[in-house]
Design a protein that fits this description.
By secondary structure, the chain is mainly alpha-helical. The chain contains eleven helices and four strands. It has a domain of 226 residues. It is 63% helix and 3% strand. Keywords: Membrane, Transmembrane, Transmembrane helix.
């Protein structure tokens, strides 16, 4: 029930129940907030005294720190007492002062006289004895090497599959839109996948050669970016390209006369590759050290050529046998074994090339020791 403001204070009858009641004026109550006292539950207090205490404490800290620094400077040794004057006689560089009396003694060498830098390394001679062949097998049991072998074999198999497919479809006598597109797409995939495969293969090849050549028994495979992989693979790519130049020239002149020139890369590649590594430059495929080793250790070089040529013949026979049994129709089934064979050959070749490089490094170290001993004996 609603009423008007003018009816306040009058008696009014309810239209529903007929009850008569007086309309009273409503009272408005205002709540006055309580006064906030200091030191109440909100933690408000007078901080006028705390500022003085903070200043006193800060001053005490500054004074204590200054006293500590003065004490340290007083206890510090005077380092200027032994400073040599500008016009005093200079001491020889090969002598050092033992005490304040001026007694001299020869400068002690930081390197022990009996120190041999290659003593802690492992010998990797180029010998195909049962012991050394067993060591090569142990090297291939390295987990890092096996993982990279599997990884590269897959991509090498894809590269072989797309390359052979592109060549086969491109050489068909009757060409149509299907064969053209197949050849084009396979060529693109072969180039892209093959480039990455060669980059990683060249990087791993360099690592194996350098590690075995250095005589390191425990391998730590580096994690490099794709740019660094390509830079390391350039040694392999440039060396193979330079040694294949005569064959490429003869192919353009007479194909029947070009096949004997395939032996030239097998002979010249290790010389060019090791020369680049010795010079540290892909544009310097010549090294006097490597060329001299051809005459100093010819037996090792002939043994290396015979072993790598025999291994290449075995790999070619395996590849030809797989292709003869499967044919081009089952190329997808033999691509993976072919990739395993190709990558495995390069890994074995790298280890044996590292052994040959170790022989060259060992020979040079012996010559350096002889020269050093001759100089010492002549000076004495």
């Amino acid at each position: 029930m609603s009423v008007l403001t003018a009816d306040v204070g009058r008696n009014t009858e309810c239209p529903d129940c007929g009850h008569v009641f007086e309309i009273k004026k409503a009272e408005i109550k205002l709540e006055i907030p309580e006064e906030i006292l200091l030191e109440d539950e909100y933690g408000l207090k007078d901080v006028s005294h705390d500022q003085d205490d903070a200043r006193k404490k800060m001053g005490q800290n500054i004074m204590s720190q200054a006293e500590r620094e003065i004490k340290e400077q007083a206890e510090r040794k005077d380092l200027n007492k032994k400073t040599q004057g500008a016009f005093e006689e200079r001491r020889p560089r090969d002598y050092q002062i033992e005490d304040e009396d001026g007694e001299k003694k020869p400068r002690e060498s930081l390197t022990p006289e009996d120190y041999q830098p290659r003593a802690e390394l492992v010998d990797f001679p180029l010998n195909f004895t049962p012991k050394e062949l067993a060591r090569d097998a142990m090297l291939f049991s390295d987990v890092g090497l096996l993982m990279r072998w599997v990884f590269l074999s897959i991509f090498a198999a894809l590269s072989l599959y797309f390359t052979v497919t592109a060549i086969y479809n491109g050489s068909l006598p009757t060409q149509n839109i299907v064969t053209f597109l197949t050849t084009f797409m396979c060529t693109v995939f072969a180039v892209v996948i093959g480039t990455g495969t060669v980059a990683f293969l060249g990087s791993f090849f360099l690592f194996l050669v350098m590690t075995v050549s250095s005589g390191m028994d425990e391998w730590e495979w580096p994690e490099l970016g794709i740019f660094d992989r390509v830079m390391e693979a350039l040694f392999l790519i440039v060396a193979m390209s330079l040694t294949m130049v005569p064959f490429g020239i003869m192919v353009t002149i007479d194909k029947s006369m070009a096949w004997p020139f395939l032996l030239l890369p097998g002979v010249a590649f290790p010389v060019v590759y090791l020369a680049m590594l010795d010079q540290g430059n892909i544009f310097a495929p010549w090294s006097n050290t490597i060329m001299a080793s051809l005459f100093q250790i010819p037996v090792k070089w002939l043994l290396f050529y015979a072993a790598t040529l025999g291994l290449l013949a075995v790999c070619c026979l395996l590849g030809y046998g797989l292709y003869a049994m499967a044919g081009i129709e089952r190329l997808a089934y033999i691509a993976l074994p072919g990739g395993v064979i190709v990558v495995g050959y390069f890994f074995v070749y790298a280890i044996w090339l590292g052994r040959l490089s170790w022989e060259i490094a060992e020979l040079n170290s012996e010559y350096k020791e002889e020269d050093t001993s001759n100089k010492v004996s002549s000076s004495s």
